[in-house]
Amino acid sequence: MVPAVLVDKLQKNYGSVPAVKEISFKVQPGEIFGLLGPNGAGKTTTIRCICTLAKPDGGNLEVCGISVLDNPKGVRRQIGYVAQEVALDKILTGRELLELQANLYHIPSTQGKQRITELIELLGLVKYAEQKTGTYSGGLRRRLDLAAGLLHQPQVLILDEPSVGLDIESRQVVWDFLRQLQAQGTTILISSHYLEEIDALCDRLIIIDQGKVIAQGTPNELKEQIGGDRLTLRLKEFATVEEAEQATQALKTLPFIQEIITNQAQGNSLNLVVTPEPNSLTQIEKTLAEANFSIFSMTQSRPSLDDVYLAATGKTLMDAELAARGTRDLKSEQKQQMK
Do 100 and 88 touch, CB atoms closer than 8 A? Predict the structure, then answer.
């Protein structure tokens, strides 16, 4: 079976800065496939290369068996692309904007009007279609942008952060619609930094960090690989590295603890992977007390995709997101000082 999307050792640099470092994955026809990672991980760059909007510095890209580099026009006929930033002409009504988009796709008038009516109904835009898009909420704008990307009935729909800025109701409308599209045979590629979105929608995914693939598989496979329940334990509000290491050595003597990861970004908290057994919490508390430590706080949960990311990088997705945001803010401040 020819993959709907093939990415083989993709590389992309911006000047001397590598944004994507030999990323590889395949998306099968009819699949919802996710790219999960914090902002700045390389997700949008990867998608822009697939969509012919950025030229790779290395690797091979194909959509439905068509080479992105050799036949970009052929690729664009196969894909629908919904970017992270919604760009709508505020003086046009929703219907007028879709009619303009249909003309750009050279869709015959009668067929275009029928397709527009179908999408307006499917995406719950009937009440708003004759209103100017400048009056739309963020959720309505995202739905309209999604309709524009689907007018020409693409084989592959590519979405960059589809839920950014959406309220819960609008997010659910988009999710339900994507499931309907998949049931009709559309292949969907989603980039997101929302764990729940990827977990709820995707058949398979890759996790990207600093331009590299650090894990891939189905959501359940990835969670099962790290096994056990999760315990997040804090010795103090802000423990030292030495205290975390001493506590780790003491806890390693307990046979039901499979792994201990220190999360330095969260006060050197200890993230434990444990095999559930009776009185395990009591044994942990006793062992720490014997090592002259008390428990400041402790939470228990089943494995999540965030645990997969933590196991691979030593930080949570939220930590990575905050670190990336801090780097962007610092660069912005430096640019302002240079002016």
Answer: no
- Mean pLDDT check: name the lowest of 212-221, 308-317, 318-327: 318-327
Contact 295, 214 (CB under 8 A): no
Backbone angles phi, psi at 89, to 5 degrees: -80, 110
Which position has the higher pLDDT, 328 or 21?
21
Predicted structure pTM score: 0.77
228 pLDDT exceeds 80?
A: no
Q: How do residues 167-176 score in pLDDT, each as one tens digit?
A: 888 888 889 9
CA distance 68 to 76: 9
What structural domains does the chain harbor? 5-222 (3.40.50.300), 228-302 (3.30.70.100)
Angle at alpha carbon of residue 91, lines to 87 and 94, rounded to 5°? 70
Within 31-186, strands assigned E span: 32-36, 58-63, 66-67, 79-82, 156-160
